[in-house]
Write a structure and sequence with these properties.
The chain is an alpha/beta fold. Helix content is 42%, strand content 13%.
Length: 499
């Protein structure tokens, strides 16, 4: 069925005058939310939001049912912006407004002078246009240079000159973001960054529901749902939310990082780009767990600033780099199956170190050193999940008797597997990882390397890392080559030696 295109057609459609006159945005959000709650599927309320089912989502539901403006408080990478944007799923599929209106006026109750004169002139022939849910969401990133004119509007002397209007005329107004978000959702990200005197400009719209522009007698009773996001640490670092504004915000909702590794894995699997074209890929569970545990370990590490937080973007970016390094190895060695290894996680350090805010101790040791420590700790915790109580003495004994093996993150799976088979009992211990000797060489190498890294993380076998030199590069003397890996300068490829 086609939508009405004139005011006359609209009057005889399902968009009844009484409903459009009395049903405000917050009523619309509430009614559509109630309909979803009756369906009994809480997951459909905010699709794609993982880990908040029993904490944040119920609080947001209560805020919407209460018709509150609300704020999400949380550290970086806690899906605050995504949740705010997901509110559009609670809006109607289409919303009629007077075509050409800058503030999306209600056809039955226009508030701007231009639309009132348009209806007086055209009557039922006044053209109607429609807004989609995405059109009705306006987002502003708060910065210190935002002005009242940006949010509310200003008098435009050029409009006055071209139209022959007096400056006090409503036709000279250039509307700001708030009026242009009329009959929709207006979101302000990082609210504390908004200057205090600008936050005052939100008072009227939040309490009385209107704005005034430049002191002229122009009153716009806007229809808005206003939502905010903020990092609680920003209150002291860059600014604060002024008390009268906090008092006008109906609900304050705290977000958080994933409570469990499984929740983190689900988020990373949803967000990371791992479905590459051209190669089949197998992503082992233990690799996913190690990557996710890096973030969990970092959030508890004393060398990392807890006030800044460790964003969920860390495991997402790390996962993409890990897959890319494994993909590069497969391309170079003409392998058909891409299987990430633990060495690929070390190769993903650039995706990890940039997301860590270090305390003094961490700054002294350096981001690369801290990053490697986090990876080793994550490997140790993941190893314990699979091999607690397992008898790996035969593997350890092989090394105790002088066994030694070199592994490179670029060597082919077939070549690496031949070397790994020399270690007595290693290939027989892949069962807890879900890998048998019937699996592909790529999977066996990844699993075997994980076991060796786990034993090293628990200090049961030794390991050193040395550079792989390019063709034509002069090798340094042995004493110089004994430097620790942390002190080496990039770019060098890893080759790890277990002994």
């Amino acid at each position: 069925m086609s939508l009405p295109r004139t005011l006359g057609e609209l009057r005889h459609s399902d968009f009844s005058e009484k409903r459009l006159r009395t049903r405000r945005v917050k009523d619309e959000l509430r009614e559509n939310l109630v309909a979803r709650l009756r369906q009994g599927d809480d997951a459909s309320i905010f699709p794609g939001i993982v880990g908040y089912e029993d904490t944040v989502v119920p609080q947001i539901v209560n805020a919407v049912l209460s018709r509150h403006n609300f704020i999400l408080l949380g550290l970086r990478g806690q899906a605050k912006s995504r949740i705010l944007r997901a509110l559009t799923t609670l809006l109607d599929p289409s919303m009629p407004y007077l075509a050409g209106c800058e503030i999306r006026d209600n056809p039955y109750a226009p508030i701007c002078r231009r639309c009132r004169e348009e209806i007086a002139r055209l009557g039922d022939e006044a053209p109607i246009a429609y807004l989609t849910p995405d059109d009705r969401y306006v987002e502003k990133l708060a910065t210190p240079d935002v002005t009242i004119a940006d949010l509310i509007g200003d008098i435009d002397p050029i409009k006055a000159a071209r139209g022959g209007h007096e400056l006090s005329s409503e036709f000279t107004v250039h509307y700001g973001l708030l009026p242009r978000a009329n009959r929709g959702i207006f979101a302000v990200n990082e609210l504390p960054d908004l200057a205090g005197k600008i936050q005052v400009g939100l008072f009227n719209i939040m309490q009385e529901g209107d704005v005034q522009i430049k002191g002229y007698p122009i009153r716009l009773p806007l229809d808005l749902a206003i939502v905010f996001s903020a990092n609680p640490e920003d209150y002291t670092a860059r600014g604060k939310i002024i008390t009268p504004l906090k008092d006008r915000i109906g609900s304050e909702i705290r977000t958080h990082y994933p409570a469990t590794v499984d929740e983190g894995i689900a988020i990373t699997a949803q967000e990371a780009w791992t479905g590459r074209n051209g190669h089949a890929m197998h992503l082992p569970n233990y690799i996913q767990e190690v990557i996710e545990r890096i973030a969990f370990v970092a959030r508890e590490d004393k060398k990392i600033d807890k006030r800044s937080g460790v964003s969920q973007r860390l495991p997402i970016s790390a996962m993409e780099n890990v897959v890319s390094n494994a993909e590069r190895r497969a391309i170079r060695n003409d392998e058909k199956l891409v299987v990430p290894r633990v060495s690929d996680i070390y190769a993903a350090l650039p995706a990890i170190t940039g997301k860590l805010e270090l305390e003094y101790e961490g700054e002294m040791k350096g981001a690369d050193f801290v990053g490697r420590e986090l990876i080793r700790a994550a490997i140790a915790k993941t190893y314990d999940e699979y091999f607690t109580g397992a008898n790996v003495q035969q593997i350890v004994q092989w090394f105790d008797l002088g066994g030694e093996i070199q592994l490179s993150d670029s060597v082919s799976a077939l070549e690496a597997l031949e070397n790994l088979k020399e270690i007595q009992g290693l290939i027989d211990k892949l069962g807890p990882l879900g890998v048998s000797q019937k699996e592909s060489p790529e999977q066996q190498v990844s699993a075997a390397e994980f076991i060796l890294e786990g034993l090293h993380a628990h200090k049961r076998i030794g390991r050193n890392e040395e550079r792989v030199f390019k063709a034509g590069e002069k090798k340094p003397e042995p004493r110089e080559r004994e430097k620790s890996f942390e002190k080496e300068e990039p770019p060098y490829r890893q080759r790890r030696q277990f002994n």
